[in-house]
Design brief:
The protein has 19 helices and 14 strands. The chain is α/β, with parallel strands linked by helices. The strands form three sheets. The chain has a six-stranded parallel β-sheet with strand order 3-2-1-4-5-6, sandwiched between helices. Helix 8 links the parallel strand 7 and strand 8. Helix 9 crosses helix 11 and helix 9 crosses helix 12. The radius of gyration is 24 Å and the shape is globular. The termini are far apart.
């Protein structure tokens, strides 16, 4: 393997992980972003997102001279061997993907490249987008150079993205071009990860199919959990019994208040829309979307069965991010309940170890913010648990009883033992455990 000149367009979640890990295995990487302040901060070694191990790895590669960040797209793309497109594809109101940022980068690439170059689309895009990107770049090429576009979808889980990039289960590359295939095989060789080559459309669909399957699994187990409550079964016992079947496995069987984040909600809606445009009703995916939408308010609905009015009621929210080890609030179940509680006049105090800065940007002084879960619980009449942060999981049942004015707890992640909570005098509701 030789060290390649790599440019990464976009320094969001996917871009900064891709760039940093590519530099870590020995490539020369330039990350491109339009935000000058953000670029300056990254060049100073400050990660733009919270992700375990990312900042230290960034600093190591910046110091080694393998990683740099810039706002000068033309300079970054001019002599790149490979350009990874990692910009956002936000969801439009109709559920389709907004490809504006993809088009902007494609135009910049076409006007800047001065040598043969492989363009790699890592952004999650509708099936057929890579074909359009390749045609678009070739139409606007300013110089007589060869460009080939390949699909290389990412499968990074927030909270473990650095590990996922360096130790992935597989690398998916979609291309019909031998040169692009050989180039990308060489670039990924230092990772030592199985690489699966296929057509571009198949690679694009693999990303959607994988994420939608996991979303289906989560919505299925949440449906079973809701039924368990009605018949007196315990979902934790049910999933333990299921997990021994190697056709099912143990992962993504944790019942709760639904999935969130930047991937599953967007990708399920995008795939359902694609099917609809093709004249096909993707019934299973549509069902998963509907189940998840209702599941996010499962705790609030439970509370409404007990509470006549939330007005003026001090309410603790433990965990705001959609999962632990990330500061991402996008599509987080906590956000849905916070909106409902505010609309009903509750006085809300939130604890989250890393998500509060992002929460303050949205709500400002509409919420109160606590530095510890214990502080959030002080004097509260109700508590909602949304994220399985270790600091929240570690709370003893007696802490709820001691700190709260009335110890009523709605646990959306099944973190605590119902018997222990009852023994401590806590009125406790969880998901699928009767």
């Amino acid at each position: 393997m030789r060290a390649y000149q790599i440019a990464v367009a976009g320094t969001g979640y996917v871009g900064i992980i891709t760039g940093t890990c590519m530099a870590h295995v020995g490539h020369q990487v330039t990350c491109v972003d339009v935000d000058a302040q953000k670029v300056a901060s990254m060049n100073a070694g400050i990660a733009p997102i919270y992700e375990d191990g990312l900042q230290a790895l960034m600093q190591e590669n910046l110091a080694a001279g393998r990683l740099t960040c810039t706002t000068d797209a033309q300079a970054a793309y001019r002599n790149a061997d490979v350009i990874f497109i990692c910009v956002g594809t936000p969801e439009k109101p109709d559920g389709s993907a907004d490809l504006t940022y993809i088009a902007t980068v494609a135009r910049q690439v076409a006007e800047s490249v001065e040598k043969d170059c492989v363009i790699v689309v890592k952004s999650t895009v509708p099936v057929g987008t890579n074909d359009k990107v390749e045609q678009f770049i070739r139409d606007f090429l300013a110089r007589d150079v060869r460009v080939e576009v390949a699909s290389n979808p990412e499968f990074l889980a927030q909270g473990s993205a650095v590990h996922d990039m360096l130790h992935a289960a597989r690398i998916i590359i979609g291309t019909a071009c031998d040169w692009a295939r050989e180039t990308l095989a060489d670039i990924y060789a230092p990772f030592g990860i199985p690489t699966v080559f296929m057509g571009r459309e198949s690679a694009e669909m693999t990303k959607y199919a994988a994420n939608n399957f996991l979303a289906l699994k989560l919505s299925f187990i949440n449906e079973i959990a809701n039924l368990c409550e009605l018949i007196g079964a315990d979902i934790s016992e049910v999933t333990r019994g299921m997990s021994f079947d190697d056709r099912i496995g143990a992962r993504f069987l944790n019942a709760g208040v639904g999935y969130g984040g930047s991937c599953f909600p967007k990708d399920t809606k995008a795939l359902a829309l694609l099917a609809k445009q093709c004249g096909y009703d993707l019934k299973t995916v549509n069902a998963a979307i509907d189940v998840n939408k209702a599941q996010k308010l499962r705790l609030f609905d439970k509370a409404c069965e007990r509470v006549i009015s939330f007005h003026g009621l001090k309410t603790a929210v433990l965990g705001a991010t959609f999962k632990p080890e990330t500061d991402d609030l996008r599509e987080a179940p906590a956000m849905e309940t916070i909106e409902k509680l505010l609309a009903h006049g509750a006085e809300i105090i939130v604890y989250d170890p890393v998500g509060l800065d992002n929460l303050k940007k949205i709500y400002g002084d509409k919420l109160a913010y606590a530095g510890s879960p214990e502080d959030a619980l002080k004097g509260a009449a109700l508590a909602f648990v949304f994220t399985e942060w270790p600091q929240i999981r570690a709370l003893a049942p007696e802490t709820f009883k001691k700190q709260m004015r009335t110890a009523i707890v709605y646990d959306g992640r099944n973190l605590y033992d119902p018997a222990a909570m009852a023994q401590a005098g806590v009125k406790y509701e969880s998901i699928g455990r009767g």
